[in-house]
Amino acid sequence: GYIIDKEGHTINIMNDQGIDKLGDIVESSVYSPNFQYYGQLHNMAHKMLGRQADPHGKYNMPPGVMEHFETATRDPTFFRLHKYMDNIFKEHKDTLHPYTKDDLEFSGVSIDSVGVEGELKTFFEEFEFDLRNAVDSAEGIEDVELKADVHRLNHNDFSFVATVNNNNDNEVLATFRLFLCPQHDNNGEEFTFTNGHWHCIEMDKFWKKLAPGKNKVTRKSGDSSVTVPDVPSFQSLIDAADKAVSDGSVFDMHNFERSCGIPNRMLLPKGQTDGMEFALILAVTDGSHDLTHEDTDSEHGGTHSHCGYHGHDYPDKRPMGFPLDRRIPDRRVLDETPNFKYTVVKVFHDEHLHHHEDH
Ligand SMILES: [Cu+2]
């Protein structure tokens, strides 16, 4: 469990920060402490797989699909490679000591219930992409309307709801961490805690002050800090800009400043007609320990979970995926920690094609 830097010194990675160091050498970051030795495994693998037809550049062939972000997922090997990359990080996490009750506990805070308001339902929708900005325009020639119809996954809006007790005499700052974990693997076998935690999906992470006593917390799916809303179409940007110019109003696009994150329509994994079972896990941890910022009401740019907070430190001191990032050899550690709670939910899928209206 160590890295050798370019002066030959060893860097210990058997700690909370180890994953960042490992990421620096595997994902070919400019922070790599020894680029010459570790190279750029992930990028290089994309190139090697993309250039199989012409490995030496003898025929001057264009790059393969694996060499472009936009096309890479069209090649099944993309998923094999990414599982391989993912396993490197899993192997590292598996060597770290599992969290103890002391690491996880939030004194005086317990969760009564966690659940969902509204149905968890996915569907495919017909979506019209405005491709107007993909064609050249010229003075004196009228604009050509260009649109493309695609089917894309979406889901109904819903909310996470929880009742959390604060048995302290004073207000406390809490970090809410929500995960959705598949109950069964691709063969229909039930996951155990030990091998299931790695398949959990982070749904949201946010901070909230808890008053003494019972706190009812509701969080809308659209506010999830792992997601961004749909990008407005080119035409709607033109219309909004024209309107602002003609009536002197403000060209307000602040809802779309968040540019990094999963599209919100993909927050839910595709369900099944008769419902696909997931464990919805909520961990409420001590925000006064976790949070790096003074501003406790801040949404940190709205997409901090995956992308951090632009121009600021990553707002959470805990590793990404905490507390499900490490092995859980004994599930009692979670079961007996009152600031953890899970419930089983079902994600349904509506087979009917929907039509997307507002774009
Ligand atoms: Cu990749």
Which features characterize this protein?
359 residues; alpha+beta; di-copper center containing domain from catechol oxidase; Immunoglobulin-like; 6-stranded mixed beta sheet; 3-stranded antiparallel beta sheet; 11 helices; globular; binds copper (II) ion; Hemocyanin_C; Hemocyanin_C_sf; Hemocyanin; Di-copper_centre_dom_sf
Secondary-structure topology with pairs:
Layout: E1 2-4, E2 10-12, H1 18-26, H2 35-38, H3 41-50, H4 69-72, H5 77-95, H6 101-104, E3 109-117, E4 121-130, E5 147-155, E6 159-166, E7 172-182, H7 193-196, E8 201-210, E9 213-220, E10 227-228, H8 234-247, E11 262-263, E12 276-286, H9 287-290, H10 304-307, H11 332-335, E13 340-355
Parallel strand pairs: 4-13, 10-11
Antiparallel strand pairs: 1-2, 3-6, 4-5, 6-9, 7-8, 7-12, 12-13
Helix pairs in contact: 1-5, 3-5
Copper (II) ion binds near residues 42, 46, 81 and 82.
Protein name: Hemocyanin
GO molecular function: oxidoreductase activity
InterPro entries: Di-copper_centre_dom_sf (IPR008922), Hemocyanin/hexamerin (IPR013788), Hemocyanin/hexamerin_mid_dom (IPR000896), Hemocyanin_C (IPR005203), Hemocyanin_C_sf (IPR037020), Ig_E-set (IPR014756), Tyrosinase_Cu-bd (IPR002227)
